[in-house]
Here is the input.
Amino acid sequence: MYDIIIIGAGPTGLTAAIYAARRMMKTLVISKNIGGQMVWASEIANYPGVKTIGAIELVQNMSQQVKDFGVGIKIDEVKKIDKNTDGSFKIDGKKQSYLTKTIVLAMGLAPKQLGLARENQLVGKGISYCANCDGPLFKGKPVAVVGGGNAALDAAEVLSKIASQVYLIYHKPKFKGFESLVAWVEARKNIIIMLASDVVEIIGEQKLERLKIENKIDRTVKEIKVDGFFIEIGHMPKTEWLADLVERDGKGQINADLSAKTSQAGVFAAGDVTPGEFKQIIIGCGQGAVAALSAYKYLQEKK
Here is the structure.
């Protein structure tokens, strides 16, 4: 029986683990991976006290700090949570089950999909949702990025240093990312910008071969040959499996108050999986700390 189990090992979950461990709570982190969305960035330049740091390095620093506090990180996927009659919880993962007195939900968000035929079939065979993870696989090869926000712009800039050519495709006539990132992308000679354009078909059987692109203004259609396709169109919570446990909003985000309390006593939520206009690493870290401290306070009050 754990005092607290944290579901998610992004910056929010890892910070929660640090704060829980400092309160001498028996703590476990369960996650499908370590780092969450943070690993999809290249460099991070807005973390207080650190001028710039590689995303992977920051993930490693955080996870090592958690381990140094004696906290275990279990790679598993949670499928179900049940509340026991004594107020504790049973968490069923793919690999095993766990018992805990409190829970912090910090799963972050999952990448949105285009919903095109062959998209799921070719994931890992040319299609990726993580330029930082898979970009090196396409050294010297042509790739495409779809999206117009900061994530897509950052992915295109990173890939321009690896790939022979980068097609940056966005369905609107103007990017919505930071002006500084737009300037970086526009300055790269091997980035071909395709605005007001949609990816309408993915072509390839055993691996990605080509993309069919339609211009929304003149309705012309062209095919581009690419070895890699990076989908950067945003993220969404995957919380349907929690519908009977906690209240969610219309977007599927878990409702939590300023103390990270959810509608279920003993269950707390923090980070990108909760409502909030701004999804940033530092905000997630702060909310993770609040969630862990609130869980500690909850257990003290129960005693």
Notes: The longest helix spans residues 281-302. The first strand starts at residue 2 and ends at 7.
